[in-house]
Write a structure and sequence with these properties.
By secondary structure, the protein is mainly alpha-helical. The chain has 12 helices and 2 strands. Strands 1-2 form a two-stranded antiparallel sheet. Helix 6 runs parallel beside helix 10 (149-164).
């Protein structure tokens, strides 16, 4: 099931079970799970955590932990969400404070610990780079989330929120989002529905602030 969460100025939808199981992230950061994931997602996650979790490897010595399908999917979602969010934020040429604020609210909603918040920041920074491998990242994300349409929809909604965050839905951002949807198998019709919902929420929040 999906629950709607109001946080600050933005609404983020997230599956209840996925949120409750986020505790696995705290254990995985001590290992090289990014490299176990493989592909471009594993590469950018590994580059984001760098050496900051090396100490955690010692703490896990003697532990046996084999990530299953659920953990693999969640790590793919975590990695793709923040990296692509940075890419969308940079689409119009600059990243605004509002877009950074949205990224922080998503981190809050995911209840990330300090280490994973830092990893999320680094993923966001990687997404801003001109050589960011968007097509490869989306291709692997779609494979990892096979048949989990609620995660793909949530991913798309967060990216659209990122585009709306600064109050201007730039043409470059929309072109990029349509391309993202096409690569994830999300129809233009469904994109318009999600966009309309996010736009309505954005207007409601603005009217509330004015009131």
């Amino acid at each position: 099931c999906v629950e709607s969460v109001k946080s600050g100025r933005n609404f983020i939808i997230k599956p209840v079970e996925d949120r409750k199981r986020m505790s696995w992230l705290g254990k995985l950061v001590g290992g090289a799970f990014g490299f176990m994931l493989g592909g471009p997602l594993g590469a950018i996650f590994g580059a984001s955590v760098g050496h900051q979790f090396d100490a955690g490897l010692e703490g896990m010595a003697g532990e046996s932990f084999n990530p299953g399908d659920q953990q693999r999917v969640q790590m793919a979602f975590f990695t793709a969400t923040f990296a692509v969010m940075g890419h969308v934020a940079k689409a119009d040429g600059r990243v605004s404070n509002e877009e950074i604020g949205l990224a922080k609210r998503v981190m809050d909603n995911m209840e990330l610990n300090p280490e994973l918040r830092e990893a999320a920041v680094q993923l966001f920074q990687q997404g801003k780079q001109v050589d960011f491998p968007l097509a490869e990242v989306l291709r692997q994300f779609r494979v990892e989330c096979h048949r989990r349409t609620h995660l793909v929809r949530m991913f798309v909604e967060i990216q659209i929120q990122a585009a709306f965050a600064d109050g201007v839905y730039d043409a470059k951002e929309e072109k990029l989002l349509l391309d993202i949807c096409a690569q994830l198998g999300v129809s233009r019709f469904e994109y318009q529905i999600i966009k309309g919902q996010v736009q309505a929420q954005h207007r409601f929040q603005q009217s509330g602030e004015q009131f």
